[in-house]
Amino acid sequence: MAVMTTPAPAHSEVGRVRLSTQNLSKSFSIGGQSLVAVDNVSIDVREGEFVSLLGPSGCGKSTVLNIMAGLVESSGGTIAVDGREMKFQEVSSKLGYVFQRDTTYPWRTVAKNIGFGLELTGRSRAEQNEKVTAAVKAARLTGFEDAFPAMLSGGMRQRVSLMRTLVMEPEILLMDEPFGALDAHTKLDMHQLLLEVWERARQTVVFVTHDLSEALTLSDRIILLSARPGRVKDEFLVPFARPRDAVRLRETPEYSELFARIWHSLGEELTKTASS
């Protein structure tokens, strides 16, 4: 059952660079000693590219993402958006961030949660209603507009969190293991939803995950980080055609072959982590 028709473009070779890190490093002080979490990480992410940062737990994936977002200060190196160097705590309207766990506000309904950013930026009531209605439909939450988060499943709450970011139409989307807490079935459902939504807007995405299957399902390119300190160990193009079916893709021999190749390299880093 093949799903590949025409190869996806080699995104690492086309399009302008939207997000770039050069020689990024980060050290933390623990008990008076310096711990190097990230070392000399250089990454270019191009227009419309979906890039996953993959690696074992503790390798610095989320730290890199948080430096990109301006949430964590680097110890060295630079981060640039569209060629402009960004400083710590500098906010770019081009960036959107989806956190590991759902960040819904329990006192706000689904519609009010999704529209929160639109309210803060002073959009007209008509624009808010139009965008929230479209987001609710895209997230398959029609009928739950007036429900509160406590009435929803974990997957539904995460859909709300995702759409609250996407409704702001960020040009660059940073995602920190947003589906990590979900069960396998719900995670697959979220993969399909994200693929469908992303296919329409084609934002530039940096997606942090420790799940190789997730990275292969979603990405154009996978950047593998080594065990701590996190360094770029390898990069893999994911040549599966789009649009993708999150379930059928995993049944293809092409998927299995690429999974095995990346798993060999990732497994070496998992072994280092287990023995450290």
Give the arrangement of secondary structure elements.
Elements: E1 17-30, E2 33-46, E3 50-54, H1 61-68, E4 76-81, E5 84-85, E6 95-98, H2 110-114, H3 116-120, H4 125-138, H5 154-166, E7 172-176, H6 184-201, E8 204-209, H7 212-218, E9 221-225, E10 232-237, H8 253-275
Parallel strand pairs: 3-8, 3-9, 6-7, 7-8
Antiparallel strand pairs: 1-2, 1-4, 4-5, 9-10
Summarize the structure.
This protein is of the alpha/beta class. It is built from eight helices and ten strands.
Query: Low-confidence parts, pLDDT < 50 over ≥5 residues?
Result: 1-12
Q: Quick one: overall form?
A: globular
* Rg, Cα atoms, Å: 19 Å
The CATH class label of the largest domain is Alpha Beta
Query: Main β-sheet, in a few words?
Result: 6 strands, mixed
What class do helices, strands and sheet pairing give? alpha/beta
CATH superfamily of the largest domain: P-loop containing nucleotide triphosphate hydrolases
On the 0-100 scale, what is the average pLDDT? Answer: 91
What is the count of β-strands? 10
Strand content of the residues, in percent? Answer: 15-25%
* Discrete helix count: 8
Order of helices and strands: EEEHEEEHHHHEHEHEEH
